[in-house]
Amino acid sequence: MLNLRRAVVECKTDAARHAGLPPQRRNGNNPAPVTAPDDIADAAPLLQLTDLSRRLAGREVVRGVNLALARGEVLGLLGVNGAGKSTTLRMIAGVLAPTSGSVRIDGDDLYDDPSIARRRIGYLPERAPLHPELTVAEYLRFCARLRGLANAEATTAVAREIERCDLGDVRRRLIGQLSKGYQQRVGIAQALLHAPPLIVLDEPASGLDPVQAIRMRELVRSLRANHAVLLSTHLLAEAEAGCDRIAILHRGELRHAMIVQPGETARLEQLFLRIASDVALPAEPHA
Amino acid sequence: MSASLVIARHEVRRLIVQPWSWGLMAAAVALLAYQFLIALDRFLQLAPKLAAAPDGAGATDIVAASMFSAYANLLLFLVPLLSMRTIAGERRQHSLTLLLAAGVGNGAIVFGKWLGVMAWLVLLTALVALMPLSLVAGTALDLGRVGAALLGLVLQAGLLAAIGVMASAWTAQPALAAAVAIAINLFLTLVDAGARLQGVSNGAINWLAVTSHIEPPFRGIVASVDIAYFVILGAVALALAANRLDALRSAD
């Protein structure tokens, strides 16, 4: 994992840019075995996007995105509304097939075998996919079973996530009656039940009040130990506070990928605003 | 398959916890109970005359058959109301992604939804069947014929549920899905009406009509051609629904 962090890679064009990956892994054909021991899996990227593109309604929403993510990392996908964040995440989650390019999880192409998504990806879409007429426990149990967990495993997993996401007080309440913050937490619990190595969260803090947003950030940070987390946001502060790396997406292209370092807020903010307002980027002094 | 069963069980649970599905079942049972009592009353009035005729109609013809045909007609409207939410409702409340992102195939999703609706319909059919079967205590009922009719009703319910799920996949508005499904059901019921009027009862258009396949079971005839009709049309509807789900993956 350390080698992933070694350099800041600047991406100023739409050409392929691999965020912080050593050159030998850039072809995306990394044959990392599914059951690799942790040390090997750590070295190889868990998630590898290669030239990911998607057209929707005749418009190229995502163009040639290259990105890699290792276990133990939290990557923030930053961009203004309409930058293509959700579309990118939908492709990574296995919901939307890319027009071209590939999504590889542990070296396996997600769209060659969509069932990979069942156990290896946890996904919280922009709006939490909840069934308001069910109780929290009933809903989570269904999600666990849907992901292929056996009866006993599902019971354990539901209890574990209710504990982790702090849902104990509301486990028997109907989801439709919960506040937005609780609902969002149920959505996150749903994405964690089957202990997937990759967790994809689309704007997890949207609509939360400041206190809830901080708790959400803590929850995401606590996931870092065992999972790779990819989250999207349009708030720079949120990305900076919760992520190890930030990738800036604009008009469907990955424009900038960098490791979050303390004290860089002002520079980052300026950069983000420049990208977001389509101002040409000045030459960066970074090597 | 296991994913389909999980989805089906979930669908049933969602129906169980919502009052409207019980209300719908209660209304259907009440309506049919009323028809049952009317048919029974008619039978009791006619009984002395029928007993005098050597080949007169019995309770099975007058009570059971008339009630089952009323139930068959009711299903044309009831099933779309039940199935309209299966996919359209999920789209409207933005929860379809849960199924799409779970690595479960489109076919398995659609089949699970269908299975959930069917479980509810089989329960309703069992409740409806109890009414004529209660006559067993007092009269000789042709149980073979009742069994054939029930099989026909379940097959018809299966086809209508498949059409309902298909319509539900086509639109994001449950009410519109119900309207589309009712329109298709009425089309399948009335498509050969003109041909029948002209005396044609054996053409391809008659084969397409649902009525020409539900009447034989009501007369006690279980023919493979009728079973094949329900299975083929139902499978086509579910395949179209799965196909539509595939297109939905690309929609926002």
Key words describing this protein structure:
heterodimer, A: 287 residues, alpha/beta, Rossmann fold, 6-stranded mixed sheet, 9 helices, disordered N terminus, B: mainly alpha, 12 helices, transmembrane helix (chain B), membrane (chain B), transmembrane (chain B), ABC-type transporter activity (chain B)
Task: Report what the structure shows.
The complex is a heterodimer of chains A (about 290) and B (about 250). With about 290 residues, chain A is of the alpha/beta class. Chain A has one domain (about 1-275): P-loop containing nucleotide triphosphate hydrolases (Rossmann fold, 3-Layer(aba) Sandwich). Chain A contains nine helices and ten strands. A six-stranded mixed beta sheet of chain A has the order 6-7-8-3-9-10, sandwiched between helices. Chain A has a four-stranded antiparallel beta sheet with strand order 2-1-4-5, covered by helices on one side. In chain A, helix 7 (about 210-225) links the parallel strand 7 (about 200) and strand 8 (about 230-235). In chain A, helix 4 packs across helix 5 and helix 5 (about 150-165) crosses helix 6 (about 180-190). The model of chain A is unreliable at about 1-40 (pLDDT under 50). Chain B has about 250 residues and is mostly helical. Chain B has one domain. In chain B, about 80% of the residues lie in helices and about 0% in strands. Chain B is built from twelve helices and no strands. Chain B has helices spanning about 1-15, 20-50, 60-85, 85-90, 95-100, 105-135, 145-170, 175-190, 195, 205-210, 210-220, 225-250. The longest helix of chain B is centred in the first third of the chain and has 34 residues, at about 20-50.
